[in-house]
Design a protein that fits this description.
370 residues; alpha+beta; Rna Polymerase Sigma Factor, Chain: A; Jelly Rolls; 3 domains; nine-stranded antiparallel β-sheet; three-stranded antiparallel β-sheet; 17% strand; globular
């Protein structure tokens, strides 16, 4: 894929902040559009390339709207099947590829029950404050890392038994805060039950865990208590979540069924996601693609708690999908999963986040900052 040097930006614009330092290696929006055109011609490798660039953003948005992992993973696959079927309808004049993909994802998840979701968000965030850092780390790694049940969650220097113990203590603390102190479970397999609830067991242990659950009333009851807690993990306060590592191969199988051909498995990752870069105090960005001809940029933006984005006027359509945290745009408060569209010629006077937040933002580098 071609990478390009960004065009010079006018003083006082968003581009003058994003491109304050000479920048080479930012991927060109034209390369993303070329992938969509290739998909429209039946190129499955191009589909996997787009998947690689965007699937975590799609999954995170859907999880914010439909906070159930299995449902969110299924809907994420549906989004890319939609992309396969509708690639020929993509019109660059209507927006960037990332904006198009994110709007496909929103359309798939729009039936979310926002009120219930926001309550879960508040409950989970409060409960996480009770965890030790190592407990939170192991739960997050077990549930959101790109692992399948066929892979052990323990790193080489961390015994799997200790990982399970940390997961168990952390899960019990979450239960205590959210639903009340869990019932005592003296069974020696309690830690195994907690790991099972998080899909964190290696495949060699799954059958034994399921056999034990079928025969142990204590662990069966514990699992019943844990599963609703795990279902709330769509509210986990992370910028970008990660679905099950089997999604690429599952997508290949879905497309093979549609085309009645052998599945084309994804190649080794070719795309290197940019690093977070602080562009102003309290504001970090990942620039994903730039369209120098239309002065558009697709990026991830992160504000620290209490951070603000400068007042600005929109030079083109601005589209924002909030992935994490809460964000005020003038008098409107956005929650994770919400969408905001700014029309050309309009402006935002005050944009700030009390909690800190992260979003997908597609906008013009010609936006005038005030």
């Amino acid at each position: 894929m071609e990478r390009t040097e960004t065009a010079a930006a006018a003083p006082g614009t968003l581009g003058s902040v994003l491109y304050a330092r000479p920048r080479k290696g930012l991927e060109n929006e034209g390369d993303w559009a070329a992938l969509v055109r290739a998909v429209a011609k039946g190129d499955q490798a191009a589909l996997h390339a787009l998947f690689e660039r965007t699937y975590r953003l799609v999954f995170t948005l859907i999880m914010r709207l439909r906070p159930d992992r299995e449902t969110a993973e299924a809907l994420t696959l549906d989004v890319f099947v939609d992309l396969w079927r509708r690639a020929q309808t993509y019109d660059p004049a209507q927006g960037t590829v990332l904006a198009w993909v994110m709007n496909l994802a929103r359309a798939r998840a729009i039936a979310a029950e926002s009120g219930q979701w926001r309550q879960s968000n508040e409950l989970l965030r409060g409960a996480l404050a009770e965890l030790r850092p190592e407990e939170r780390y192991e739960i997050e790694a077990a549930y959101f890392a790109a692992l399948t049940r066929a892979e052990a969650v323990a790193p080489p220097d961390q015994p799997l038994g200790r990982v399970k113990t940390l997961i168990r203590s952390g899960m019990h603390k979450l239960c205590e805060v959210i639903v009340g102190k869990p019932e005592s479970n003296p069974c020696a397999h309690s830690a195994l039950t907690c790991a099972y609830a998080l899909w964190a067991l290696p495949s060699s242990e799954v059958a034994a865990a399921e056999a034990h659950l079928a025969s142990c009333a204590l662990c069966e009851r514990e699992l019943e208590i844990l599963l609703p807690i795990v279902a709330m993990f769509g509210a986990w306060p992370a910028d970008v979540l990660r679905p099950n590592g089997s999604l690429p191969s599952r997508l290949a199988q879905r497309i093979a069924t549609l085309t009645r051909r052998s599945p084309v498995m994804p190649a080794a990752p070719q795309w290197s996601e940019p690093a977070w870069e602080e562009v102003a105090p309290g504001i970090s960005c990942k620039l994903l693609a730039a369209d120098n001809d239309r002065h558009l940029v697709s990026m991830l933006v992160r504000l620290v708690p209490g951070g603000s984005y400068p007042a600005h006027s929109h030079a083109a359509v601005e589209e924002l999908h909030l992935l994490n945290g809460e964000l005020w745009i003038d008098e409107r408060k956005l929650f994770a999963g919400d969408y905001n569209r700014g029309e050309p010629g309009t402006g935002d006077q005050r944009v700030w986040s009390e909690t800190g937040c992260a979003c997908v933002l597609v906008t013009s580098v010609m936006d005038v900052l005030r």
